[in-house]
Amino acid sequence: MTAALSHLRVLDLSRVLAAPWCGQILADLGAEVIKVERPGTGDDTRTWGPPWIKDADGRDTREAAYFMSANRGKKSVTVDIANPEGQAIVRALAAESDVLLENYKVGGLAQYGLDYASLREINPRLIYCSVTGFGQTGPYANRAGYDFIIQGLGGLMSVTGERDDRPGGGPQKVGVAVSDLMTGMYSTVAVLAAIARREVSGTGQHIDMALLDTQVAMMANMAMNYFATGKPPVRAGNAHQNIVPYQTFAASDGHVIVAVGNDSQFAKLCDVAGCPEFARDERFATNPARVKNREVLIPLLAERIAARPQEFWADGLEAVGVPCGAINDLSQTFADPQVVHRGMRVELPHPTAGHVSLVGSPMKFSESPVVYHAAPPTLGQHTDDVLRDVLGLDAAAIARLRAAKAV
Q1: What domain range is 128 assigned to?
Q2: Among candidates 372, 348, 341, which has minimal Cα distance to 29?
Q3: 281 catalytically annotated
Q4: Is the terminal CB of the chain with fewer CB neighbours within 10 Å at N or C?
């Protein structure tokens, strides 16, 4: 079976996380992804350690775990784009590519003749995706954008964290760079849409992706709560703004998540908890009533849940169809039988580590499966191969480029 995008070539000029995440998804879907990096240093995240990946003897390889998270399946080519001959290499690669990804500052690539306006002249079918913090236009366009800042500006931290009136209350960022990751996901969707459009129009286009736009868009129901009421939602800790009970509870030996999605599930929860009368109480019988009377109901449920261990609640509620789950650390997550069954940890050979463990793709296809081409590349691992196989350069030409420090 052939991977879905095996007919496409992607030129990835991006660094760090958002746009590289898009490139990795496209690589998983079968595209040939050529990652252009700075000679000698490469992607910034190559040095974002420790932790480092270890070799077979347990020694650090100086390959950062962070870099490994977003660059699976790519070919690394080192090119100095400040060098005119390096610029010529990138232009030649763009002429042979379907998609270009970049996350330079607005206008940053124009000085090298590598902006969309310049490259579409040599490849009208090129889909050119620019990822920045704030987009190509607007009063913030020239600002640097980082996930942490975007989570604050985009409203996410206003609804993340414990309630302000409780111990530990206050703004809290999410534990992974969600605005980066979601921008990578939206960028992937945009690229695929542009590919579909190119089948009709015959031409490529420029895609302008911004972390702030993505963060605002992903506020979803929280944004709609604001539009509906005119009141900004506030932090609610692990509770849900619109559904009750939908939060963590302390059991006798740890914490559990109880996620009641409808009134029938609430009645079943009450049966298991030994308080069936709660489901008949007009204060709690419907979700709107439970939201209104949250402060009364939750302490009553918390007292009952605290009296029994996690296993009692997980097994008892699962048996009657009420969603309930543990709070795992990552060692428990990757040992979970469902996660193991779904192949969410993959092992790939690596030039310096021997083998490396990576997080698998969540996409499962019946006819065009995800392909794991290779582990994240070492810096410049494929420079000679790409110059030879894609651009047709011979050994002498490649040696001359090295002597000129273009690669």
Answers
A1: 9-218+342-403
A2: 372
A3: no
A4: N
